[in-house]
Amino acid sequence: FSSVMNAQATGQWSILQLEDPLAQTLLTVALAMKLGLAPAHFWLPEVLQGSSFKTGLIIITWQKLAPMTLLLLTWNQTSMLTLMMMGSLSVAVGGLGGLNQTQLRKVIAFSSIAHLGWMATIITKSNKLALLNLTTYILISTPMMLSLIFSSTKTTQDLTTTWTTSPMLAPLT
């Protein structure tokens, strides 16, 4: 919809050449919704809680690549103020939302929201640093999710007894 608005205003269909401020903001909000940034984050904890850990791994890693790539490609075309506000709000929502959770998938979902908030904030300053942050996030999240898949852990209570069945995963507790 953002590219249609830009085409109507300027005659350009490319999202890499957004000149209309409303189209820039709309693109930023649409990508934020796809990423699960606050205030468009409400779908992420519930979807992650209702899915398996394998599906959750795809949601928190692979699904973030396309919208983050678009944000990195259009970082100079996006609304920096909107992105900074959404990033800051996501850090707060992710941090506070995960505090009283016992289900690991919800903790991971709120952690993902907070991490994406930091990434959105970093994009406003340096897209190379944001790419490094995304790569680090994926490299840390993947083994964590794979170890939770391996140990069949669903709650924080299950995590405390993981060492009896999988001594190699004891450092997680």
Automatic annotation (TrEMBL):
<feature type="domain" description="NADH:quinone oxidoreductase/Mrp antiporter transmembrane">
    <location>
        <begin position="21"/>
        <end position="161"/>
    </location>
</feature>
<keyword id="KW-0496">Mitochondrion</keyword>
<keyword id="KW-1133">Transmembrane helix</keyword>
<dbReference type="GO" id="GO:0006120">
    <property type="term" value="P:mitochondrial electron transport, NADH to ubiquinone"/>
</dbReference>
<dbReference type="InterPro" id="IPR003917">
    <property type="entry name" value="NADH_UbQ_OxRdtase_chain2"/>
</dbReference>
<keyword id="KW-0520">NAD</keyword>
<feature type="transmembrane region" description="Helical">
    <location>
        <begin position="81"/>
        <end position="100"/>
    </location>
</feature>
<keyword id="KW-0999">Mitochondrion inner membrane</keyword>
<dbReference type="InterPro" id="IPR001750">
    <property type="entry name" value="ND/Mrp_TM"/>
</dbReference>
<comment type="similarity">
    <text>Belongs to the complex I subunit 2 family.</text>
</comment>
<keyword id="KW-0249">Electron transport</keyword>
<feature type="transmembrane region" description="Helical">
    <location>
        <begin position="130"/>
        <end position="150"/>
    </location>
</feature>
<keyword id="KW-0679">Respiratory chain</keyword>
<keyword id="KW-1278">Translocase</keyword>
<dbReference type="GO" id="GO:0008137">
    <property type="term" value="F:NADH dehydrogenase (ubiquinone) activity"/>
</dbReference>
<dbReference type="InterPro" id="IPR050175">
    <property type="entry name" value="Complex_I_Subunit_2"/>
</dbReference>
<keyword id="KW-0813">Transport</keyword>
<keyword id="KW-0472">Membrane</keyword>
<feature type="transmembrane region" description="Helical">
    <location>
        <begin position="107"/>
        <end position="124"/>
    </location>
</feature>
<comment type="function">
    <text>Core subunit of the mitochondrial membrane respiratory chain NADH dehydrogenase (Complex I) which catalyzes electron transfer from NADH through the respiratory chain, using ubiquinone as an electron acceptor. Essential for the catalytic activity and assembly of complex I.</text>
</comment>
<dbReference type="Pfam" id="PF00361">
    <property type="entry name" value="Proton_antipo_M"/>
</dbReference>
<dbReference type="GO" id="GO:0005743">
    <property type="term" value="C:mitochondrial inner membrane"/>
</dbReference>
<keyword id="KW-0830">Ubiquinone</keyword>
<protein>
    <recommendedName>
        <fullName>NADH-ubiquinone oxidoreductase chain 2</fullName>
        <ecNumber>7.1.1.2</ecNumber>
    </recommendedName>
</protein>
<keyword id="KW-0812">Transmembrane</keyword>
